[in-house]
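Human: I wish I could look at a protein chain and see how it folds. This is the protein in question:
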Amino acid sequence: MPAQPDASPVYSYLGPVGTFTWTALNQAPEAVGGEWRSVNNVGEALDDVISGRSIGAMIAIENSVEGGVSATQDALASIPGLRITGEYLVRVDFDLVARPGTALADVTTVAAHPVAYAQTHLWLDKAVPTHAHLPATSNVAAPTALLNGSPADAAVAPHGITQHLALDTLAEHIGDNQNAVTRFVMVSRSGRIPERTGADKTSIIVELPSDAAGSLLDMLEQFATRGVNMSLLESRPIGDELGRYRFVIDLDGHVHDERVADALLGLKRFSPRVTFLGSYPRADRRPVVLESRYRDEVFIEARDWLRGILSGEPDGEDAVEDAGEALPGLVVRELDDAAPGQHGADDQGPQAG
């Protein structure tokens, strides 16, 4: 049953307490004071949102080492009505923990979430070369199971987990990449788009109309010709047949930016399916830097110029004086920018001779 209107807002996350998802949820201002519902996987978290049990779900979407989280990308592509409203970055730092009294030399089986194992296996192969891997459902489920009869001797867990569980730390900072970061997003059913800040990101999923030569280039040109940078581009199989893929894309900018909106219109004209996942502030708050020709006012000015043509207003060199406020500076600037040879061979500037 959906939560009552006067009840505390509920947020779902991959738990239990102490997971990286829990750490990310701690960064979300809207979740402060709400009820946090621990779930076992991304599908359960999103189902909470769709059913109304939760108003938001914090889920991992990208890792700096492993790339996109396929379960999240596929779920966002297949479940309609979901929107990303914010993103959060969490540094990924792992320890190897065990029951009190266990030594590193005693370890033969290591419990770990598959993603955590992939990011620590080089250290484990060196420190515990004969170990076996026992998969776990989360980064905290692995160490928790040690206290509940797990056959594992040790577990890969988030750094600091011994503050929550009665375990010993056998080794700290065992990640193969000390700069690893996981990106999380808050997902809800809200249709409200956060206000643009100048440091924003837009997430979409796009399917190509066919696998014909040039189709991918057609998609990429929608962004390149409008100065829209892609910070993420990953393909995922659609699943209906071999060779059919959809693309998960993050754009630098906000849907309220003229260049981003124009690029989305271009995509919609040729793609059979464009899924808008949301525009939201970047976690790093880094402003998007643009060339002057891609600023909002340039797109607006060009559109006003076209409106003038369609409405029968004069255009061209003979109309510069008549254009006035209807086309502020546009034609004059086009003339100023013209190449020297465009005015004829006899047209020599004041420096000629």
Notes: Residues 49 and 55 are 6 Å apart (CA to CA). The chain has four domains: 1-92+180-191, 94-171, 193-290, 295-340.
